[in-house]
Each structure stands twice: as C-alpha cells, then as structure tokens.
C-alpha cells in the first residue's frame, strides 16, 4: 500500500484480536506489585500503560517499534541514501510497525502537504496574545484554534459508531501533524523575526519544510531538523507529554484537545522546557567567565553554585534512563561530523565529563548522565536558531509524530477511559 490509512486498515483487525486474547485469556496475569514508594514517587517503575510505538530500556534507551536510533538511521529512508531518516518514515513506522519504502514515505509526504493549510483564524488567535508571551503559550493557543476543524468532534456529535472512532481520529491526527510546522513557524517569525509567513515549499519534505518556514535553508540544518524530529517523536507512554495526551483522549476528547494538553506538560522545565534551560544555563556559564573556553575547575565551581542555589543541572538525569541517552549520543555524533570545532559543542562535551561525578556525589540522583536536552540547543544555536525560548516548540512539533499514532490506536483498540484509583494519606498510613 502506498497509502498509510489503507495500510493501517489492514492491520487493525489483527491488533484487535491480539488485545482481545490478552483480555480474555490473560487478564489476571500480574505485571508487578504496587508499592508505597510508587504511589509517593510519581508512579516510577509502575507498568500501567499500553503504548505501541516505542519502549525505553533503562540501560539501552529508546527503541521505536523495536528499532534503535542507529537502526532507524540505517534503515529508514532519507532524502538521499545515507541521509538522516525522514520524519514521515518514523511516523509510518510508529503507526504500522513496518519499515516504509521510499515510495511510501514520499506518498506520506504528499499526503501531509495536502493537509497542511492552516486557517487564518489560527494566526489571528495567536496575534491576540502579546508578542512577549512564551513561544509555547502562543504555540498551544494555535493548536487550540486548530481544534475548530476537528473531524472527530464533528462526527461524534452526529452519532458516530464506536467501531469507526479511529477514522476521524486518523484525520485529526494527520491534519494536526501536517499543520503544526506552519503554526510553529509563525510563532517563531512573529516573536523573533519580521512576522511574515514564509510559504511552504511543495518540493520539500516535512522536516525540511519546517526548517524552511522558520527561515533556514542550509541543507545541513534541514538534515539536522529531520534527525531532531525523528529522535524527539516518541519516548514510550509514561513521560508527561505522551501520557497526558493519552489520558486526555480517553474520555474521547479529540486529538487537538489531547495534544494541546500534552504541550502544556511539555512546557514544564523538568520535561521539554529543559532544552531551553540548558542553553540558558550554558550562556550563563559563558557570561560568568567571559569565554566558552572554561577550565574544568571553573566548570566544577559553577555547577556547585547552581546546585547550592537549589536548582537542578538541566539536561542531566532521567525518570527511566540509567545511562547516557542515545538521543544525546546521536546528536553528539552529528556534531562531531559537522561542527567539531564549535566552542559551544566543545563546552557541552566537557560538561559530559564534569557534571556526572558531581551529581553522583550528591548521593540521591539516580541517573547522572546527559539526556536529549543537554545537546540539542548547541546544534540549533550553531545553525543560527539562537533563540532558546523557542526550543521546546520544536520538541512539541516532533512529539505530535509519536502521540498521533497512539491516539489512533487508542480508538482502534477501544481502550477505555483512564481512571486509576487514588488513596488518602490516612488510608495509606492505616495500611502501612
Ligand atoms: N540536577 C540536580 N539534581 C537532580 C538532577 C539534576 N540534573 N536530577 C535529579 N536530581 C535530584 C532530584 O531533584 C531529586 O532530588 P530531591 O530528592 O531533593 O527532590 C533526586 O535527585 C532524585 O531524583 P531522580 O529520582 O534521580 O530523578 P527523577 O526521576 O525524580 O526526575 C528528572 C527526573 C529528569 C526530572 C531530573 O533528573 C531532573 O530534574 N533533571 C534536570 C531537568 C531535565 O533535564 N529534564 C529533562 C528530562 C528529559 C525530558 O523530559 O525532556
């Protein structure tokens, strides 16, 4: 099939059968015990969600439908053979579990282009906010305005049968993914440039077009954007943004509503906003010493200063990972290939040596290693995207490619309303 929806339609009955079998034959199989630590500790380690697209192993990191990042770089089609994977390819993989051919990816590129037109009132809704509003606030406002065109909401109101819920969810998810770059680029141009929209280039792919609409046309930046979107798309189901999208969609809130909620969680400094915080922190180090060439002793001193003032070192640590994030590693490899002499990249490399031992000394940090956000900023900065307050918007656009497919599967598999049980402090004490 060249058409993604036809491909999916063929897969759905098989997946429905698999889930039905699990429910009827294995419903009482235990996946682990729930402890007091889990309830008080943000549900860490509690396996409680079904998520099809990807899984994070504490030691190894992300696998997208079983594929590591190097596998994706090797096997997913790029613009040219050997190029970075196209975001359309990871979207196809996440939704179907199959590696797409170049023809399938090109056809999906076309499909997204035909869906990409953004109604004018979306830009007007953003214009109603002061230019000083945070880029994530402006972006999410745009997403809420896109919701006006929700097919799911419309069809549900006209009495859509449950078995067909996934169809308008597919429409909404694909339209959302297709329209986000134009909305996100508008936010960037409005806040940091002349406010004029750069029209999309029909000859470009999804990631290339997003870079182009932001105002960047360096082929290397376009390649970085493709890789960036691919590695930020999905990180299993329990992270704040993905989990939020799933949760909010379960009472049948449409994909726009669910995704706007996800973005609001992504905008938290311990989650997606960390990429902004990292570059801000790096700039503050450089400002303190007047140069990016900083000695190890000086760096140590600055890290201690950050920790002593009660702040975290942004870009380090993780809720699941216990090793260096492979999303960090692949960005490092990209930098080694294309910008080895950049002083900010060299500073980031030095931090990887200096930060972990200090965090380990604290005795409480479970993972002292760098995560995805420790690296992305210096690459974007190198290519001229220097406005760090914008970085989380890039993460947001990318996350739609992981969340969209899961929302479609949520409806295809008829997953129910999410409603875990809470407990009072008194009850918890009584049980203990
Ligand atoms: N700097 C300082 N202290 C840190 C730390 C860091 N980078 N990472 C963890 N800690 C501290 C925690 O604040 C916590 O302290 P308290 O017990 O005093 O509250 C303690 O170590 C234990 O935390 P943990 O179990 O190791 O980590 P969590 O699973 O609770 O939190 C995370 C994970 C990412 C929120 C945390 O490591 C952090 O704040 N990192 C910095 C922010 C960051 O980079 N976030 C981005 C994550 C990736 C993403 O979602 O984009």
From TrEMBL:
It comes from the Eukaryota. The keyword Signal does not apply. SUPFAM superfamilies: Citrate synthase. The active site is at 271, 318, 373. InterPro entries: Citrate_synth-like_lrg_a-sub (IPR016142), Citrate_synth-like_sm_a-sub (IPR016143), Citrate_synthase (IPR002020), Citrate_synthase_AS (IPR019810), Citrate_synthase_euk (IPR010109), Citrate_synthase_sf (IPR036969). Keywords: Transferase. One of its GO terms (molecular function) is acyltransferase activity, acyl groups converted into alkyl on transfer. GO terms for cellular component: mitochondrial matrix. GO terms for biological process: carbohydrate metabolic process; citrate metabolic process; tricarboxylic acid cycle. Belongs to the citrate synthase family. NCBIfam families: cit_synth_euk, PRK09569.1. PANTHER family: CITRATE SYNTHASE, CITRATE SYNTHASE, MITOCHONDRIAL. This is Citrate synthase. It comes from Quillaja saponaria (Soap bark tree).
């Amino acid at each position: 099939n060249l058409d993604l929806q036809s491909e999916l339609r063929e897969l759905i009955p098989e997946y429905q059968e698999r889930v039905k079998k699990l429910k009827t034959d294995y419903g009482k199989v235990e996946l682990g015990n729930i402890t007091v630590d889990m309830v008080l500790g943000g549900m860490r380690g509690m396996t409680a969600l079904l998520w099809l697209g990807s899984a994070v192993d504490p030691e190894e990191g992300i696998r997208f439908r079983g594929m590591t990042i190097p596998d994706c770089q090797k096997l997913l089609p790029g613009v040219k053979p050997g190029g970075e994977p196209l975001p359309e390819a990871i979207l196809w993989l996440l939704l179907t579990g199959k590696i797409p051919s170049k023809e399938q990816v090109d056809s999906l590129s076309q499909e997204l282009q035909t869906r990409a037109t953004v109604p004018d009132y979306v830009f007007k809704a953003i214009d109603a906010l002061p230019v000083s509003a945070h880029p994530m606030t402006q972006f999410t406002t745009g997403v809420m305005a896109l919701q006006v065109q929700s097919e799911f909401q419309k069809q549900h109101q006209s009495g859509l049968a449950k078995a067909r819920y996934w169809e308008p969810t597919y429409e909404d998810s694909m339209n959302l993914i297709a329209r986000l770059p134009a909305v996100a680029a508008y936010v960037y141009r409005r806040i940091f440039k002349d406010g004029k929209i750069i029209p999309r280039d029909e000859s470009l792919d999804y990631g290339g077009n997003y870079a182009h609409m932001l105002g960047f046309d360096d082929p290397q930046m376009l390649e970085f954007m493709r890789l960036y979107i691919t590695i930020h798309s999905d990180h299993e189901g329990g992270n704040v943004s993905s989990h939020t999208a799933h949760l909010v969609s379960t009472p049948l809130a449409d994909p726009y509503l669910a995704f706007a909620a996800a973005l609001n969680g992504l905008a938290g400094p311990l989650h997606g906003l960390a990429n902004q915080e990292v570059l801000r922190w790096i700039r503050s180090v450089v400002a303190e010493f007047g140069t990016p060439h900083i000695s190890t002793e000086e760096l140590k001193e600055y890290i201690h200063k950050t920790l002593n003032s009660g702040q975290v070192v942004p870009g380090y640590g993780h809720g699941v990972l216990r090793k260096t994030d492979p999303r960090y590693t692949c960005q490092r490899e990209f930098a080694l290939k294309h910008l080895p002499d950049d002083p900010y990249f060299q500073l980031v490399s030095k931090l990887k040596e200096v930060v972990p031992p200090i965090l380990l000394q604290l005795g409480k940090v479970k993972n002292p290693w760098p995560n995805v956000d420790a690296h992305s900023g210096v690459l974007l900065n190198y290519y001229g995207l220097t406005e760090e307050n914008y970085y989380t918007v890039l993460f947001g656009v990318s996350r739609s490619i992981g969340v969209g497919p899961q929302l479609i599967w949520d409806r295809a598999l008829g997953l129910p309303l999410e409603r875990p049980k809470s407990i009072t402090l008194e009850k918890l004490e009584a049980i203990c």
